[in-house]
Amino acid sequence: MKQQVLTFILNGEEVAVLVTPTETLLDVLRERLQITGPKRGCDDGECGACTVLLDGEPVRSCLTLALTVEGRTVTTVEGLMVKGELDRLQKAFYERGAFQCGFCTPGMLMVAKSLLAKNPNPSRDEIRSYMAGNLCRCGSYEEIIEAIQAVAAGEY
Amino acid sequence: MTQYVGQAMPRYDGIGQVTGTTKYVDDIVLPGMLYAKCLRSPVHKGIIRHLDLSAAERTPGVVGVLTAQDVPGQNIYGASGDQPVFNPDHIRYKGERIAAVVAVDEDTCMEALEKVKLEIEEQEPVFDMFEAMKPGAPIVRPGTTHNLHEYMPGMTTRVIKLGDVEQGFAEADLIIEGRYQTTQQDHAPIEPHVSVAYLDPANRLVIHTVSQCLYFHLSQLVRVFGLPMSQIRYIGGTIGGGFGGKNDIHADHVAGLAALKFRKPVKYRETRREDLRYSGKRGVFVMEYKTGVKKDGRLVANHIKEYHDTGAYGGFSAYATEKCGMFASGPYWIPNILVEAKTIYTNKVVSISMRGFAIINGQSTMEIQMGKIAEALGMDPWELRFINAWRDGDMGASRYIVRGAGALEAMKKAAELAGVQLPAHLMAMSSRRR
Amino acid sequence: MREVLYYAPTELTEATAILADHRDKAAVLAGGTDLLPKLNYYEVKPHALLYIGRLGLSSIHNGSSALTIGATTTTADLATHHLVQQYAPALAQAARLSGSVAIQNAATIGGNIANASPAADLVVALLALDASVRLLSHSGQRDVHLADFFLGPHLTILQPDELITQIHVPLSPGKTEFLKLGRRKGQTLAVVSVAVRLQLDGDLCHDARIVLGSMAPTPLRCRTAEHLLRGQKITTDLIHQAATQAIAESSPITDQRATAWYRKKAGEALVQRALLQALDKKEVRP
Question: In C, which residues are within 8 Å of A62 by CB distance?
Fold first, then answer.
């Protein structure tokens, strides 16, 4: 299939990559750019493991056609660290064991990041509701909620 | 070392998880890597009459195809050693693998699969295990005469026996019967099944696997590939959830066979939908209870008829059936137990291991039965459970001696957490003595 | 490999010209939440993808008699926009309850309508608000009442060369409510959803809308139930009668989310609840 150049800002840097029209943003990130933080869990928009921030808002990269992000800004879990320092959410997830297998973690972190940007002090119900689209089959939901609460409470 | 006991420690591999740098198998992309997709049976039961892969093979970008004929060793895998990697003739369930297409990418594989000419003579399937046990039912396994697993030649019922249930029922004041069913269940780990295989410079077959039990699988794979174990580097360790589902081989056989035939790195992965529709599941259990009890609440006899639907192949089912039966009387002292368990084949996907390994199927049904017994006795369900809970030295269905019993203490804690005030005579009970 | 063309026009005339060219061989892409699963799983194989996210159709305006909502306005925008909250609170509520945050950020109102799912949350609310859609093609445009738009599950009167460009929501008075029952609270498809609108004249019901989702091949206006309420004094008894009648008009199926039996039982309770709760809601005044 004929390839086209796609240019966008990925984790703060402009990238240009050849893609085909049917590729998703997840395909391009994982298979072409080896940005493998976002995970392919369902290719169906259900699980949330592929969630990235598009212009700061969480979207499913598996449901985002790659060419539609032309000129836009994409942030993945790889873009969370600043100057080699873990983001506060990363620290809290790590120290509080907010995962078991870790496959859902990159998606969870991105949605949590967006939540705290909008609502720095969310209630437990607000966290549950905002995170509802991200599934964790290991069942680490309690630890995930507590990690987000701990960050909101300024513990990290 | 002791300073760590009782402390919550960060995971040794946790930094990789929170930074997205942990390498899961699907994160591996190798130069020149090929992809495989499988042709699956569109019918539940039938005989393959014609398979023509030539048009698929000619599709630009396709490197080649795999069928049963491309298996250098034996075309057999699975916990029961009865599943073909590629089914050459008798289809037993919808979605069973028949062939694979290997190409430069998955889009090309899918395009090629559309060009396959497959003719299957469809046969009447059977999905319900009680239907499958009736005379004249469709036969799931070709060459056999019935749909029951044989524990030994001719032995289709697994019996577990403690004491004498008939004597127990004679002593009982009340006999309570109940029939319960647990449903099929998928593991649905967020990471779908995937495998990457290639030949290393020493010509060894390297496989990156999501297996939960590498050595079980290695012994199955050497048979499929016809290679000695020393010729396979089987690399596992990082998986995105398994829950027992990855105790079965789902992708390594296909990726390995493709790498061996085409001598290139090959990735084979199942989509979420393939996984949900066609991979192994926790099978259906039907449990029929007949329980004898004294008026004072002591259980004296438990006769259980257990039926476990294994689907189209054996999987881990014979073992799961036994395990379920052994523990289907719950953590309760019952001097007379008889379990009669059957494992039944149907034209469904294979039943494999899943969390709790079938023990929870029997234990949960026993708890429903306990509720029914308490109701029949007019007794508080806590009291019924406390009276009968295992104490150290009691004996379980398969004559194991109970040591370190803890059901009473667990129930006391549960009552506390649930805000239930238990009477003093129950709180005084201990697992250390009856 | 198959060639697929990708277009991302910035002018409507360009978009309709592309559609006129490719007709049913083109797939219109907005938020992608319904189209991409089908593409990812090879269920649709379009020759052309027409991305309409750069046509400037993502705005909400307040006219003299109606809200005008651009077809690519996202569900997230509907949920939070002050005009929607003020004049179409049932639509804002339906938007809030649809999908997860990440889905809401991508899914569009036009997509929810064009996809024509019997469970479409936004459509259920829009039907209760008497909304209409503007359809544009190379040869002209037409406005169609949403109630006349759906033919069946994923079937509509939309022609292959037509594009939904705008949704008009009349500014009509009334008390509204949208309720949804799913298998879970977040990111769920409706087992049953209900939107109601009551136009009151003192304690008399001047006009009513009762709309059910997931209860028929298309989102369903329960016209006989609405008629029961019209001109009557609203009582608890009457609300119960209307709920029973609404369910009598429905024809739910049994699927993986619920049985038809359960849908009817739960649906009746949900309609009652929606009507009762609507009475307590602040009246929308244009």
Answer: 36, 40
